């Protein structure tokens, strides 16, 4: 039997409406968590993130136990994308909206993740702290182009002002860029996983996030993390949503 500690928190910040949405659950065999950050205007972004999380929960509830998580993610992301792409408002008109998604699923000590957009997953192991997902924004494309000598440094700098614009998100009507790990990441006791929207990492450095995650109690770690982000970016704090999962290892029943 595996043991997991989980905590989830979401704040509206200084925005007019909460466009983030999250979900978490755990049992003796595993844990799953999803974080979404809506985009496309206030009402539309909120609708997209809510729809994505609720649809993901529905799909997860129907998942075949024999289906691997990479297979499940690959199948589900197309369903989620189409679902959000065809969202309508109360007048029956199409809603132009989208959302990021980052999801983590653990089977015993095996971690699988999915990411589309710029919400992130981090892993903390001892003193090692890494961002496991990539930011699917224009910087991602620019870096590919400069590495392949398609543009030079001057062109890169001219385009960098648009760097944070997303090139991949749920609801775009055809997702080509995503992160799914096909081979499981094997967890060790005390490994800590963080799923978060950009409201956190745009306020705090990696070192500051790491220090908060090293707090022993996951609820205290999460409260400290979100409070510190709010204190630093109090004049313009984006919606911020975080889920922490700590793996405590296997125990005998």
Instruction: Determine the CATH topology.
Output: Phosphatase 2c, domain 1
Instruction: Please identify the top-level CATH class.
Output: Alpha Beta
CATH arch. level architecture: 4-Layer Sandwich
The helical percent reads 25-40%
What general form does the structure show?
A: globular
Beta content: 25-35%
pLDDT averaged over residues: 92
Largest sheet features: 6 strands, antiparallel
Which value, in Å, is the CA radius of gyration? 18 Å
Number of structural units classed as domains: 1
- CATH superfamily descriptor: PPM-type phosphatase domain
SSE order: EEEHHEEEEHHEEEHHHE
Structural class: alpha+beta
Low-confidence stretches at least 5 residues in length (pLDDT < 50)?
none
Our measurement of the CA-to-CA distance between the termini, rounded to an integer number of angstroms, reads: 6 Å
Number of discrete helical segments: 7
Number of strands: 11
